[in-house]
Amino acid sequence: xxxxxxxxxxxxxxxxxxxxxxxxxxxxxxxxxxxxxxxxxxxxxxxxxxxxxxxxxxxxxxxxxxxxxxxxxxxxxxxxxxxxxxxxxxxxxxxxxxxxxxxxxxxxxxxxxxxxxxxxxxxxxxxxxxxxxxxxxxxxxxxxxxxxxxxxxxxxxxxxxxxxxxx
Length: 167
Description:
Strand content: 15-25%
Number of helices: 5
Low-confidence stretches: 5-30
Structural class: alpha+beta
Strand order of the largest sheet: 1-2-5-3-4
């Protein structure tokens, strides 16, 4: 029992010394977005989800977010979709520091939001490769490969059969 009591005390004593060492690491990960090359005006990222395709451009700015030339609040009426779209920016502490311009087509509202998330994450990674670990840990750089299953012949849908009549 004595050894068990000593063990938590040593881990508690080691924890405060480890915490300040991790704080500077987060400061380096929250580095700002550099200015793009003079030949390029934006950092680009492409995102896909189901049948939706989003082309995302970001540049250093004051936090403007436009989707199909409309403000984010006008395009996405659901709060859940708005939170999903800005999640990569908040995880990298760049929300309000970059301008985001998105052209999205195809799919539905939720599919378009998922495509924008992937596009924004890829553009942030292109702008600053230090964001890779943060974005990957948040799951923003993973393409969701789930698609609608195709309709099969001899059936009403992908799996649904026609109604069977015994008589």
